[in-house]
Structures are given as structure tokens and as C-alpha cells.
Design brief:
Blueprint: E1 8-11, H1 17-28, E2 32-37, H2 41-53, E3 58-62, H3 68-82, E4 87-90, H4 105-129, E5 135-139, H5 143-146, H6 152-171, E6 178-184, H7 190-193, H8 198-206, H9 216-227, E7 238-241
Parallel strand pairs: 1-2, 1-4, 2-3, 4-5, 5-6, 6-7
Helix pairs in contact: 1-2, 1-9, 3-4, 4-6
């Protein structure tokens, strides 16, 4: 446990994949962790149990980030339980792929609601309520750089996140709060691997000079850096954690 022990980190979409790895890493770093999830109660409780078994502190908080009232309630719960929030990690998101010409209104609206409005809702609440000296860490994607076909709407929501990140970092002047984004490349999570052939997965893995997929722990390490004292001079930036892909 490090010297972060009285600080509280709220991680959205933390019941599985990268979010779960981030929650466990921040708990290892000494943060009390609020594990946000939308639907998978058992998965979120499993992450919390792993954290507590390793000597950390965790609380699960069900909330749909696209609902501003639910987001406010989640911050209320964290404040009631632990006195405040120091770090927000905006990991919750969905990825539904389609060519722009084939994108229906429902696919567009759902991704904007969760990826963009959801991250905006939590950023807005954190901007009002985060304790001084805190951190906001958003999630983008390296497809902002690679610009792959069928990723149009998904990537548009993430490009917007990068812009909000830079602007919010300036708006929080005077409070010693940093705002940054992490932009992973292909990462070995169930979400990424599902439905892909071994050949396609291998092609993604070989696309960067390090010739492997990212692991959830690789991304968690970057978040840990930004959330901890060593990342205090990084502000308004997007860190591309992708093995040199772009």
C-alpha cells in the first residue's frame, strides 16, 4: 500500500476488462475504489471481493452514466461512504461498429449517450465535486489516429472526449486538478476478442512494433501513473498506450 491510502477513486465500467484491471491496480496503489457498473452486479461484486481479499477497500455503485441523476447519486454515495472523491476514471463505454452509411439512429444515439454524454456527465460532476489536487482520467481510443473503417461513430465520440479533456484541464485552473485521457490500442479483453478469428487477432497483435496486443494491466499501469504523484505534471494530454501503433 502506498501513501494514497486515504484517497478515493471512482472507476466507471469497472466490473470487467480494462475497468476491472484499473480498479484493482488503484486499490493496490492504496486508493479506496468505487466500482461503478451498469448491469453486471455479480461481476462488480467479484472485483470488489478480490480487492478486499488483497487488503484493499472497495464499494460497488450501480449507475447508468448516461443518466445525470444516477451519476449525481453515485457521487453522493461515494461522499457518504468515504467523505469525497479524489480520482475519476471514465472507463465506461460501448463499441458498436458499422459503416457510416449503414449506421442506424439507435446505434448512433446509444454510443453518443454512453460514450460521450456519459463521460460528460461524470466529468461535469467531478468538476464540481472532486477534492482539490484530484485527477480526472478519461478514455479515448487509438482509432482516433488509425481511423479504421466501421469505427466512425465510436471514434467520433472518443475524439470529442479528447477535446473535452483539454478544455476541462484549463477550466479547473487553480485547484491542482489534472485532466488527461488514455487512448488504448487493441487490448486483450473479452469485448475486443469476442467474434474475431485467430487470424484477425494475430493481425491486430502484429500491427504495432512490439507485436502483441495490449493487456488490461498495461492500460491500468498508465492510469496508475496519471492518478499517482509521478503523473502530477501531466495535464490536458492524451497518452496513446498502444505499443507504437500510431
Amino acid at each position: 500500500m502506498s501513501n494514497e491510502t486515504n484517497k478515493v477513486a471512482l472507476v466507471t465500467g469497472a466490473s470487467r476488462g480494462v475497468g476491472a484491471a484499473v480498479a484493482e491496480r488503484l486499490a493496490k496503489d492504496g486508493f479506496t475504489v468505487v466500482i461503478n457498473y451498469a448491469g453486471e452486479t455479480k461481476a462488480a461484486e467479484t472485483v470488489a471481493s478480490r480487492i478486499e481479499a488483497a487488503g484493499g477497500r472497495a464499494l460497488t455503485a450501480k449507475a447508468d452514466v448516461s443518466d445525470p441523476n444516477a451519476v449525481r447519486g453515485m457521487f453522493d454515495a461515494a461522499e457518504a461512504a468515504f467523505g469525497g472523491v479524489d480520482v475519476l476514471v471514465n472507463n465506461a463505454g460501448i463499441m458498436k461498429l458499422a459503416r457510416i452509411a449503414d449506421t442506424d439512429d439507435a446505434l448512433f444515439d446509444q454510443q453518443v449517450a454512453i460514450n460521450l454524454k456519459g463521460s460528460f456527465n461524470t466529468m461535469r460532476e467531478a468538476a464540481r465535486r472532486l477534492r482539490d489536487g484530484g485527477r480526472i482520467i478519461n478514455f479515448s481510443t487509438s482509432v482516433v489516429g488509425t481511423k479504421l473503417e466501421t469505427y466512425g461513430v465510436y471514434t467520433a465520440t472518443k475524439a470529442a472526449i479528447e477535446t473535452l479533456t483539454a478544455i476541462l484541464s484549463k477550466e479547473l485552473r487553480g485547484r491542482s486538478v489534472t485532466v488527461n485521457a488514455v487512448a488504448p490500442g487493441p487490448t486483450a479483453t473479452d469485448l475486443f476478442l469476442h467474434g474475431k478469428s485467430p487470424e484477425l487477432i494475430d493481425r491486430f497483435a502484429k500491427a504495432n512494433p512490439l507485436e502483441r496486443l495490449g493487456m488490461p494491466e498495461d492500460i491500468a499501469s498508465v492510469v496508475s501513473f496519471l492518478a499517482g504523484p509521478d503523473g502530477s505534471w501531466i495535464n490536458g494530454q492524451t497518452l496513446r498506450a498502444n505499443g507504437g501503433l500510431v
